[in-house]
Automatic annotation (TrEMBL):
This is Small ribosomal subunit protein uS15. InterPro entries: Ribosomal_uS15, Ribosomal_uS15_bac-type, uS15_NS1_RNA-bd_sf. GO terms for cellular component: cytosolic small ribosomal subunit. Pfam families: Ribosomal_S15 (PF00312). GO terms for biological process: translation. The lineage of its organism: Bacteria, Bacillati, Mycoplasmatota, Mycoplasmoidales, Metamycoplasmataceae. Belongs to the universal ribosomal protein uS15 family. Keywords: Ribonucleoprotein, Ribosomal protein, RNA-binding, rRNA-binding. Part of the 30S ribosomal subunit. Forms a bridge to the 50S subunit in the 70S ribosome, contacting the 23S rRNA.
Length: 88
């Protein structure tokens, strides 16, 4: 789970203003941070299949948001995946 402080930092970095949590790059950044923290969890807890289901749902949601952003604004999509270091 992403802390409030980290989430606020991501909103400021990727958003248009400090309260712009619905902006696609902000949502993608928050999901990416959550996914990265869950990767560390699964490195230790390999058999936690219950959490794996939620992890896969987050990855699929991020993928859908990235595809939507790519269709809407390709330049912003490229900037976002470069800033978050996401392979695509």
């Amino acid at each position: 789970m992403v802390s409030k402080e980290k989430k606020a930092e991501l909103v400021v970095k990727f958003g248009r203003n400090a309260k712009d949590t619905g902006y696609l790059p902000v949502q993608i950044a928050i999901l990416t941070e959550d996914i990265e923290s869950l990767k560390e969890h699964f490195a230790v807890n390999k058999k936690d299949l219950h959490s794996m289901r939620g992890f896969i749902a987050k990855v699929n949601h991020r993928k859908a948001l990235l595809n939507h952003l790519k269709d809407e604004n390709y330049n912003l999509y490229l900037e976002t995946i470069k800033a978050l270091n996401i392979r695509k």
